[in-house]
Design a protein that fits this description.
423 residues; alpha+beta; 8-stranded mixed sheet; 3-stranded antiparallel sheet; 19 strands; 21% strand
């Protein structure tokens, strides 16, 4: 959530930068400024009356001590009037502050200056690429056919049990899935991330804290009886560990990683691009989350990108990094880099990670702050990234590593799988 300080510093610049995301923020920003002026006027009235109440209390005491009971009673009448007025002002203040917050919850984060202009994925910029494109044998199969051939994943069983988008992993498919999770967690731990195991359901305050609510409520599974939400990513519970927390300067940076199942309704997703593992309602992911001082967050972002790139290099997958344009970024992000791997049998790029800096946007919602060396409290910067999401990694590994003898397991995973080839 944008801060009033940000908006007041240069409202025209905020509106300009929001336009990079395709969001017309003029009315919202003007409404917030007008309501803030109203709030300050109400607060001034409240403060003036509070000062008068303090003065009257002293005067009443003096009158009573001097035996001037009639004058004291007259002052008490004034006190009663002021207290009623204060109650009314407090209600108006609370209403005004609630209206400001409601508007700000509907305003996305402003993109940083590195974000390119553009409205769709076609406007994203390839920042970097690496890896070697595989040469597949004649008659190479897409992963959904490979999964059936080697009995690795049963999509029909998932439909029977739950519905489309909930696959059942079997045998070596389940072992490969587990191997990827353990590999990603071990790599994160080696990079200094503290592993946590969070809940898979969160309350409304947690969804608001990281920005999934109210913006993405239609994409979340809701446990209506308890007003809880199944997590779309471990980012939500892990970042909320620091909601309403003031960190010491020495505590920073905070580096956490977590494995979780993730749940997304993906409403409106249809067609060939969602076949097989390409788009699921339930999937596994390892997430990395960082809480940083503002001056350190962009260096941390580069470290996170390097970490994800290192994972893809060890897996032997061809990759590129996209710097997302304003129109293709998520609601809460100040800048996002997507990692995509090439799926040879499908002949297309598949997104496997998003690494984002949210600057103070989430921290303001969360009230996640730190106390600097000067003893002043400031909002932190929050960052997160997939390291990595499993379904499309699995799809690319199966397709790119198929041979006439079977599917070759990457060297880095063999100590976890216990086998070198799927045949």
């Amino acid at each position: 959530m944008l801060t009033l300080q940000q908006i007041k510093a240069d409202s025209d610049d905020i509106v300009r930068r929001l336009a990079v995301k395709g969001f017309d923020g003029r009315k919202a920003i003007d409404d917030v400024l007008a309501l803030d002026e109203q709030r300050r006027t109400l607060q001034q009235h409240n403060d003036t009356e509070a000062a008068e109440l303090n003065s009257l209390a002293a005067q009443i005491g003096a009158k009573m001590k001097a035996g001037q009971r009639d004058e004291a009673e007259a002052l008490k009448q004034r006190v009663a009037t002021l207290k009623q007025s204060q109650k009314e002002y407090a209600e108006k203040l609370a209403d005004t502050e609630a209206r400001i917050r409601e508007i700000l919850l509907g305003v996305p984060n402003v993109p940083c200056d590195m974000v390119p202009a553009g409205l769709t994925a076609a406007d994203n910029i390839v920042d970097k690429e690496g890896g070697v494109m595989p040469q597949l044998p004649e008659g190479a199969l897409p992963h959904w056919d490979l999964a059936k051939k080697y009995r690795l994943i049963d999509f029909d069983l998932g439909v029977k049990i739950t519905g489309a988008g909930f696959p059942v992993y079997l045998g070596k498919g389940a072992k490969l899935q587990r191997a990827l999770i353990q590999f990603f967690l071990d790599e994160a731990s080696a990079a200094g991330y503290l592993e946590v195991q969070p809940p898979y359901v969160v309350n409304e305050a947690s969804g608001i804290g990281t920005g999934q609510l109210p913006d993405k409520e239609a994409q979340m599974y809701v446990v209506t009886a308890d007003n809880l939400y199944l997590i779309p990513t471990a980012e939500v519970p892990v970042t909320n560990l620091y909601r309403d927390v003031i960190l010491a300067d020495a505590d920073l940076p905070v580096k956490n990683c977590a494995y979780s199942a993730c749940f997304r309704r993906e409403a409106g997703s249809y067609g060939k691009d969602v076949r097989g593992l390409n788009r699921l309602h339930q999937f596994d992911k390892v997430e990395i989350v960082r809480i940083e001082r503002p001056e350190d967050s962009y260096a941390a972002l580069e470290e996170m990108k390097d970490h994800v790139q290192g994972l893809l290099d060890k897996l032997g997958l061809p990759w590129h990094i996209l710097r997302l344009c304003g129109g293709d970024m998520c609601f809460t992000s100040a800048i996002t880099f997507d990692f995509e791997v090439y799926s040879a049998a499908q002949g297309r790029w598949l997104e496997v990670s998003s690494v984002s800096n949210f600057e103070t946007y989430q921290a303001n919602r969360l009230k996640c702050r730190y106390r600097g060396a000067d003893k002043k409290t400031r909002l932190c910067h929050t960052l997160n990234g997939s390291a990595l999401a499993l379904p499309r990694i699995m799809a690319a590994l199966l397709e790119n590593n198929q041979t006439p003898e079977g599917i070759v397991v990457p060297e880095c995973l063999r100590k976890y799988t216990g086998f070198d080839i799927i045949d």
